[in-house]
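Duplicate of #3305? Posting structure anyway:
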């Protein structure tokens, strides 16, 4: 097993923390990312921060401003719709492949991921907003489990990046669709276990576009 240097570990930890803070809105859209302040906040070096921010720039979460530095990527209705469309394209293809190749272990993993998500959706429905990040983590895990048998690591990694860009809009808009989304997740699970790709794709399109329209209706993206 290759050794991981301390510098690589620090860089990875900084990357994960800053990325999560952008996705969950603690670093809001449009905020300038001043390296001196980030150095103190994340207890890391300027050179590591540049590496991390360039990596996040490649994912579309940060904008590099030449000599001016970096800022958190702004949000827009057009970008939300484009991100949702790309997510649907990737997830639809991966879902079809996963349904073809998934085995009983995949089914068990998917059922487990759905159970955790459904329990957290019940918590959210009770009005307990302190669990928002846990809810979205289980949401991510369920959709990753849905496509986990697609046979392509690159496809799953690309989907994960786009899913997180979509997720950031939900966090900015504080968008939770409640029982509607929970019902769609259950329908996706049932379709997966039945290997009914046609129904799953139809539900997925409604699920993603419903998230877009709900986020826009919140009026926080303008």
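Output from current build:
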């Amino acid at each position: 097993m290759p050794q991981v240097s301390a510098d690589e570990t620090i860089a990875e930890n900084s990357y994960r923390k800053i990325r999560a803070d952008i996705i969950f809105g603690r670093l809001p859209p449009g905020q300038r990312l001043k390296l001196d302040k980030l150095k103190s906040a994340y207890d890391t070096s300027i050179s590591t921060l540049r590496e991390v921010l360039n990596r996040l720039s490649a994912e579309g979460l940060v904008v590099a401003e030449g000599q001016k530095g970096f800022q958190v990527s702004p949000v827009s209705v057009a970008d939300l719709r484009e991100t949702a469309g790309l997510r649907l394209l990737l997830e639809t293809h991966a879902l079809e492949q996963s349904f073809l190749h998934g085995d009983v272990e995949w089914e068990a993993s998917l059922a487990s991921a759905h159970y955790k998500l459904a329990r957290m959706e019940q918590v959210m429905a009770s009005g307990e907003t302190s669990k928002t990040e846990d809810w979205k983590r289980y949401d991510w895990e369920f959709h990753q489990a849905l496509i986990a048998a697609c046979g392509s690591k690159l496809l799953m990694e690309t989907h994960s990046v786009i899913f997180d860009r979509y997720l950031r809009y939900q966090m900015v808009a504080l968008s939770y669709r409640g029982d509607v989304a929970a019902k769609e997740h259950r329908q996706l699970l049932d379709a997966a276990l039945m290997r009914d790709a046609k129904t799953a794709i139809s539900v997925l399109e409604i699920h993603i576009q419903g998230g877009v329209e709900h986020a826009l209706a919140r009026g926080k993206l303008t």
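Confirmed duplicate; merging threads. The beta strands are 32-33, 62-64, 70-72. The mean pLDDT is 91.
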